[in-house]
Prior knowledge:
The chain is built from twelve helices and 21 strands. The chain has helices spanning 51-69, 107-122, 170-182, 193-201, 204-209, 241-252, 256-266, 295-320, 342-350, 377-391, 397-403, 407-417, and strands at residues 5-12, 16-24, 30-39, 43-44, 47-48, 76-80, 86-95, 103-104, 130-142, 145-148, 155-156, 158-169, 187-192, 211-216, 221-227, 230-237, 279-282, 291-294, 329-333, 354-356, 364-365. Strand 2 (16-24) and strand 3 (30-39) form a beta hairpin.
Amino acid sequence: xxxxxxxxxxxxxxxxxxxxxxxxxxxxxxxxxxxxxxxxxxxxxxxxxxxxxxxxxxxxxxxxxxxxxxxxxxxxxxxxxxxxxxxxxxxxxxxxxxxxxxxxxxxxxxxxxxxxxxxxxxxxxxxxxxxxxxxxxxxxxxxxxxxxxxxxxxxxxxxxxxxxxxxxxxxxxxxxxxxxxxxxxxxxxxxxxxxxxxxxxxxxxxxxxxxxxxxxxxxxxxxxxxxxxxxxxxxxxxxxxxxxxxxxxxxxxxxxxxxxxxxxxxxxxxxxxxxxxxxxxxxxxxxxxxxxxxxxxxxxxxxxxxxxxxxxxxxxxxxxxxxxxxxxxxxxxxxxxxxxxxxxxxxxxxxxxxxxxxxxxxxxxxxxxxxxxxxxxxxxxxxxxxxxxxxxxxxxxxxxxxxxxxxxxxxxxxxxxxxxx
Length: 421
């Protein structure tokens, strides 16, 4: 495989935009060349509300990455979230043979059964204005034999696929792509953020044994459940770190900027861990006099909102998924996961072990120190996902189809990489 192939990952969040420009080096590692971050404006809960502001924010973050990399950004892949996202598990089914002899299954049959599952979702009422961004096979069934992970070269009369479908509002997708275009770039593909983040913070053992990923971003909290190596459930809650900042700002009568600083520097998700007599100075608004407030009061505000986020997540998961299947535990990632004692609060609510998900940087080379934070899980995960697809080209398109049957998507990646040197 030729080296020097470039990937640009962009995490477009409600509060921040993160851009990473990387090249695939001789060791098949992604060499980080440029990192750019900036505040996000013009978006609320993953939805564009001011295209020009959003475009300027994206442009500034990309320019910072380009300046560091001394390379123009290209081959751009974007991570998104928002309560416009809808996901569901569905079943696709095709006949392989009409005669008395079974048919040997090839990659084209796999692609056809995935397409059938997608078509079954598209025709459902309420999905007319949604676009499928992921169709991820969970497992297959051949003539009643289920639990098959790779049916290629097996024989049978009927093939079924159990597939996790993720859809997004078509207008939101187009608006985000348009923001990037106004900034002077082109989006190659869009990913759901928790799926991207999982590539960076969960290993294969966790995905196989059963794991919950909770990505608490600025405007949304993204949820994903993995079991037996594949995603089984995903959802988005329209609550995140900005809600905590807003609560602190209102409760302490201070500016959002000061509230954010207090949250980041002294925030705690468990109020009873703070001594009752400890105080902090709270900056007044518009030149008003500063005041002393008990730090425990600040923690009480944070804990109340974090409980709401985690308890809402628990209710959704408990209704939609069998939590007893989760053996590997829970992983918190995203910026708000850095709040002290967040893991302990999650363990209390979910009654299972929890950890903070830092991205695994072992597959990266170059200046990676800045990326050693849950805030960069999505952008790092996007790099890994695209890298896996590119490297899988060595095995041929049919083998990639088993992992991610989006044949057109892989062909698109192969086409724009094939001429690189």
